[in-house]
């Protein structure tokens, strides 16, 4: 279920700079995150990292960029993903960012990261801190001082680091059997960017300086690797196509998507794009027909059941949405984002039995993904509807802390701590929020 959330990078970035917020939003979607994990797996293995070591998340921005801010998270802009033409190019981007982590290029940021350590006590993992802003598919701003020269000073790599990351990334690609020429796809996109004024450059060009020496070195490596790689396997192509289709369906104008797919036939990817476009139009009956076709094509695919649940939920068919989400969760029992949406559907259905079940499911989702503010908002509502007002304040405080609204978080945490038994789980969570609020960097 694709949703756009406010991303709070305050835990790290505001530790070193204090500037006006930039307007960027984070995309959370179980299918997209699964697709990225599938594409990253061979790269991480080649780099000697486990498949769960690094989390890759998508920022909703038309600009072309990818970056790392700690040793566990990679951000990629949706504009870059949709600009690329093949899965190997996206894997090359991932390999390059993994190389920055593996080669220790983040060491110089350690002091800044340490100042955020107390905030992480409540699960404010940098990449996952996000907040739902109001109703439905909220899209609001990035609460981080990442503007102008301070942004470049914090995120930018040196030319030496870039060359080092290129070489490591190329080795990872070849080791994984991925065409290293895909790295040239990326460099060609940004060729000429450095001649532009900073305000006209894509962020990638500012944070990843390009040079003719880098291009020559990559071309030389690619020439020497001929015959040692092959085209992307069908699985990589498939998950890349699904992720791209979902991003295009939700982020592009639905009428444009429908016009483009009018002659694309009834292939799975075209049907996926159409289902989303009809939903956004909105044309709920057509959307349901298309997503039902997807479910019939792949009855054991949790993400198609989840998408059907989203369309039904946002069409206010709550009981049917609950059934679709239940099926999705049965097929993917550890997907916290699906758990959270099932909890939301149960809440909206509204019966006492479903509210009780929603509370259990949302608490389980929180244990797996504590930084999902949409879930925290629903969890607070489930506690309130169950007569547990102090626990509702705890969940609300946690939602505010991941948003970077530390004063509001402190207010709700104090209210909860005063009403809960000392030493209880809720009281301890409230203490974590208070510690986070106290340690949070204050804007000047």
From TrEMBL:
The keyword Acetylation does not apply. It comes from the Bacteria. Coiled coil: none annotated. One of its GO terms (cellular component) is membrane. Its cofactor is Zn(2+). InterPro entries: Mito/Outer_Membr_Metalloprot (IPR051156), Peptidase_M48 (IPR001915), TPR-like_helical_dom_sf (IPR011990), TPR_rpt (IPR019734). TPR repeats lie at residues 302-335. This is Putative Zn-dependent protease.
